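Worked example (supplementary).
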Amino acid sequence: MNLIVSADENWGIGRNNQLLVRIPDDLRLFRELTEGKVVVMGRKTRESLPNGILANRVNLVLTHDRHYEAGNAVVVHSMDELHRRLEPYPTDEVYVIGGGSVYSQLLDECSTAYVTKIEFAYAADAYAPNLDHLPEWELIAESEEQTYFDLIYYFRKYKAKGRNHGYNR
Ligand SMILES: NC(=O)c1ccc[n+]([C@@H]2O[C@H](COP(=O)([O-])OP(=O)(O)OC[C@H]3O[C@@H](n4cnc5c(N)ncnc54)[C@H](OP(=O)(O)O)[C@@H]3O)[C@@H](O)[C@H]2O)c1
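After joint prediction of all chains, the assembly is encoded as:
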């Protein structure tokens, strides 16, 4: 599985169920990487999406609510059910897209993380795991400095050591 996130200096990712900032080139990279693939998200992240669904992708939404309806998205109610629904798909085609609670639960099953790292500390209330502090994760690639108005950010790629896409649970 892959993880994809934009995180600020403190690995903050959101506030009041919204992104901290919308950077057009970041949103474009997100679309390029995930289109045609499977995206896994929590119910709160789904509700933060402008249309409640990401087009041209298989959308899987986690919630404990048995009555939750999410249009064309597939609703799953537990990690076990998620794994059953993911069985038909190659793990390298699965992208964990957040939010914080879902990143934490699926981090150990991910082998690659695409991180847009923003050099600013926002007031956040949702966080991704800090991959720089986890010894099993290593930074393997970083873009040149990117700018959006006065923001500086980098596209980073991390790999989990000794883990490949075949790893599952
Ligand atoms: N910067 C980024 O790249 C990025 C990406 C995604 C999201 N975000 C931000 O992150 C924030 C949302 O993150 P969050 O942690 O608050 O919420 P979240 O992870 O999006 O959703 C949490 C919800 O998912 C459901 N859930 C989680 N684990 C489950 C499990 N094992 N079984 C069944 N249901 C499960 C529960 O829904 P129920 O309560 O319905 O049971 C839970 O309340 C927002 O601010 C959003 O904008 C940022």
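Two points are worth noting when inspecting this output. The domain at 2-160 is CATH 3.40.430.10 (Dihydrofolate Reductase, subunit A). The chain is about 20% helix and 35% strand.
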